Amino acid sequence: xxxxxxxxxxxxxxxxxxxxxxxxxxxxxxxxxxxxxxxxxxxxxxxxxxxxxxxxxxxxxxxxxxxxxxxxxxxxxxxxxxxxxxxxxxxxxxxxxxxxxxxxxxxxxxxxxxxxxxxxxxxxxxxxxxxxxxxxxxxxxxxxxxxxxxxxxxxxxxxxxxxxxxxxxxxxxxxxxxxxxxxxxxxxxxxxxxxxxxxxxxxxxxxxxxxxxxxxxxxxxxxxxxxxxxxxxxxxxxxxxxxxxxxxxxxxxxxxxxxxxxxxxxxxxxxxxxxxxxxxxxxxxxxxxxxxxxxxxxxxxxxxxxxxxxxxxxxxxxxxxxxxxxxxxxxxxxxxxxxxxxxxxxxxxxxxxxxxxxxxxxxxxxxxxxxxxxxxxxxxxxxxxxxxxxxxxxxxxxxxxxxxxxxxxxxxxxxxxxxxxxxxxxxxxxxxxxxxxxxxxxxxxxxxxxxxxxxxxxxxxxxxxxxxxxxxxxxxxxxxxxxxxxxxxxxxxxxxxxxxxxxxxxxxxxxxxxxxxxxxxxxxxxxxxxxxxxxxxxxxxxxxxxxxxxxxxxxxxxxxxxxxxxxxxxxxxxxxxxx
Length: 579
Prior knowledge:
The protein has 7 helices and 30 strands.
């Protein structure tokens, strides 16, 4: 017992001595280890395929003009009834949609029957039913009888090779075929979920089959991409760990035929010495459901250039999660997911271990994105958001308070003496774009993090080029709590079918708050301004060039604010760039 206490005290004293040695502002920031932002790899979502389109040929469900326009005849109607072409009772789902169709009593022009028909058509289309209302020949005596032709898929013809996804496609299309009556919104949801399968793109067209009224043939065009390779180059890093990085990610689709993607990615600085991040993972769908399971592992090693100081940080993160789409339409998407993070991070100076953090975290996350369009298809707003609740657990040798009241991991000091590994953390983001004219628009993104406890370094909100605070090095400052906004004015100067160029000006502001008992600066506000341009080509290349000017010192002990930065990032995707 006594010897263990001496060993623990010895390690703490050694760590304090080392911390004094690295006491400069730059080195002390680095010695704390990497935050979550700093080991996250570049996003590739914008370049992914997986579009869907449901088109209905005009002849699939015939609609007629009104034959009574201009007629002098009148009628006095009190009620309206609906039936199918064969006289059968309509499905309850259609009757529910038609329940709001009313008849105004009194003598009116005979063309009123067409007005009632059109109102019924609008009610059906509003609820997504692929159907048409017809006026059969009848003798009008206070009651109008209308007949409904509603679509049913009699056959689905698949054109193209679905690759290893044939079985999944067959099962999901069977659900589509069994829809009677056919609802466009439900069909879109099924097709969108099919198109969310990595490497798969589908398009459905409906046409009459020439048989019973309402029966249609579904022509499904399928495109399968067996693999993709993403490549990114950028200079967002701090100079001490190498500004320029190159990132590559290879994805293979359909290894097991379960709607899956297997991937491996790596990022390194230009000399492959100062920072290396490697990630591998697999994601698949549970058969017969829209639930997806995923797992990945990330290893990150950082060896900053600090002269004779041999500082080395290594992080290992394992993640497992499950997700489910709550809403899926062409203009809205809502997903809920939950998972578990297992994180170990150590920082060494030569043969000495300066700090070690071990985090075991359960989380629940909700995402909601979409767009609003006018009747002519013009976008009036686009948005993206998420809310995440994270709860640390004191399991699997997680960092915990030691016998001296400070946080330790297996007897080794944590990155922050009073950091809490089992804290409750709430994170969120909301991003909205609104066009002012066809070429000009404004964009606002707000991010935040809240907790009641001081956190370990990995869980802190880190400002900089990888989050909010363009122009500041990633990790230049961080906080247990944070709230920030990135605001842009954008203008599209060139818009062509295959490429476009956009210029923008921005203002970033972020406020951080540290909850440590002895922190020298509990709160800090950082601002930056700048502008740049973005270029996209054929959905296979994204490039951005930014001039960013920090307006504040990164931390209180800095003598001057950081210098202005020119930032670049370019991402491309193979093989689509070759097409």
